[in-house]
């Protein structure tokens, strides 16, 4: 018996073309609909004072703070300066502010560092803090009442009236929005007092803030925000907090900070309006998850250091850096991978370390 066979009819040319076009259209539609996934890398930079080489300290970690590589050693851009603050916009663009009115910038992740021309010849000015909003709107503060702003990524700068800032050390600056900026510091004299200035229109007009109950008797070291919550922090564990964008303020302090109380809050970051991490004197880190209603102490084992810089990648991963209480200079980097339950010493450098920054964008 002959086997039964069936002939398959070959599809016509038009039918074949239609199938191919349908497949192509599906493929194109999928490519257009798929979101572009940008993975932010846990890169971090640390700023510090010059060491025995005579060059300012900039350190980079590409693995969440486990290992560190020095950048800029031997570069004329970092010669004879101290780097006081650092801001990593993304994995390529990082800014630093330094002693002697020096502004630093890299556009290749730190392979090369260059000096950016400051808006005024203010030799000897210590640039203490930097804040960047919308990637290219840059605010810098420093000694002598110095406040700089560039809205075009550093091409042009504005120097604001130093008399308004009482020609004093403006230790902290923060751009809440491109228009709302806070600048804080301390006035001169044997008993320095706190100073708070702010603008609501990008610097066209400045006003000062006088907290209730003479709370400016504390010097102010820094300021930060998350959402509508703004925190101004400083000497002897004191801070001011506003939950309504600066309309009303509450005086407060971290209880028993530093063991016996009174440790300075040298740096504070906010993960959200409720969760803040603070770096304090005598190696202490404090955490609140209640917007300051309650604080928990997180000893780091660095009691011989002032922790002066802290940043967090998320609620679990954080880095803190510090400076020695006494000579010789000693800059520790400590890391927590479990929300601050434990802190581990990653590295010690023979230079005071000042600030640490994860990528912001």
Topology:
Blueprint: H1 13-33, E1 44-48, E2 57-61, E3 69-71, E4 83-88, E5 94-98, E6 103-106, E7 114-116, E8 127-133, E9 137-142, E10 146-150, E11 158-159, E12 169-175, E13 181-186, E14 194-199, E15 207-208, E16 220-226, E17 229-234, E18 238-242, E19 250-253, E20 265-270, E21 276-280, E22 284-288, E23 296-299, E24 305-312, E25 318-324, E26 331-336, E27 344-349, E28 353-358
Antiparallel strand pairs: 1-2, 1-28, 2-3, 4-5, 5-6, 6-7, 8-9, 9-10, 10-11, 12-13, 13-14, 14-15, 16-17, 17-18, 18-19, 20-21, 21-22, 22-23, 24-25, 25-26, 26-27
Number of strands: 28
Oligomer: single chain
Q: Please provide the ordered H/E string of secondary-structure elements.
A: HEEEEEEEEEEEEEEEEEEEEEEEEEEEE
State Rg. Answer: 26 Å
State the end-to-end distance: 76 Å
Biggest sheet, spatial arrangement of strands: 3-2-1-28
Largest sheet: 4 strands, antiparallel
Q: Could you list the spans in which at least 5 consecutive residues all have pLDDT below 50?
A: 1-11, 13-32
Give the number of helices: 1
Structure commentary:
With 361 residues, this protein is mostly beta strands. The chain contains 1 helix and 28 strands. The strands form 7 sheets. It has a 4-stranded antiparallel beta sheet, with no helix packed on it. Strands 4-5-6-7 form a 4-stranded antiparallel beta sheet, with no helix packed on it. A 4-stranded antiparallel beta sheet has the order 8-9-10-11, with no helix packed on it. A hairpin with a 5-residue loop joins strand 4 and strand 5. The longest helix has 21 residues, at 13-33. The protein is globular and about 50 Å long.
């Amino acid at each position: 018996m002959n086997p039964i066979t069936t002939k398959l009819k070959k599809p016509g040319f038009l039918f074949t073309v239609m199938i191919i076009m349908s497949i192509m259209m599906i493929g194109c539609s999928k490519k257009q609909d798929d979101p572009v996934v940008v993975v932010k890398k846990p890169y971090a930079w640390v700023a510090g004072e010059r060491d025995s080489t005579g060059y300012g300290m900039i350190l980079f970690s590409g693995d969440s703070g486990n290992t560190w590589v020095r950048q800029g050693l031997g570069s004329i851009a970092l010669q004879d300066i101290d780097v006081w603050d650092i801001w990593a916009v993304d994995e390529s663009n990082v800014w630093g502010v330094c002693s002697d009115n020096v502004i630093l910038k890299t556009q290749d992740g730190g392979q090369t560092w260059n000096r950016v021309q400051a808006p005024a010849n203010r030799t000897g000015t210590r640039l203490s803090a930097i804040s960047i909003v919308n990637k290219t709107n840059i605010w810098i503060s420093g000694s002598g009442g110095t406040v700089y702003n560039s809205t075009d990524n550093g091409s042009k700068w504005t120097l604001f009236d130093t008399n308004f800032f009482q020609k004093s050390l403006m230790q902290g600056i923060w751009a809440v929005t491109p228009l709302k900026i806070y600048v804080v510091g301390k006035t001169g004299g044997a008993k320095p007092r706190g100073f708070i200035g702010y603008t609501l229109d990008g610097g066209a007009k400045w006003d000062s803030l006088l907290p209730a109950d003479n709370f400016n008797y504390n010097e102010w070291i820094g300021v930060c925000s998350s959402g509508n919550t703004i925190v101004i922090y400083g000497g002897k564990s004191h801070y001011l907090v506003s939950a309504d964008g600066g309309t009303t303020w509450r005086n407060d302090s971290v209880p028993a900070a530093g063991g016996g109380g009174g440790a300075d809050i040298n740096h504070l970051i906010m993960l959200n309006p409720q969760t803040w991490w603070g770096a304090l004197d005598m190696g202490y880190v404090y955490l609140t998850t209640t917007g300051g209603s309650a604080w928990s102490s997180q000893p780091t084992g660095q009691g011989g250091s002032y922790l002066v810089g802290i940043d967090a990648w998320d609620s679990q991963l954080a880095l803190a850096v510090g400076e020695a209480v006494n000579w010789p200079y000693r800059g520790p980097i400590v890391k927590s991978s479990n929300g601050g339950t434990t802190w581990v010493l990653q590295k010690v450098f023979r230079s005071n370390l000042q600030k640490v920054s994860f990528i912001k964008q």
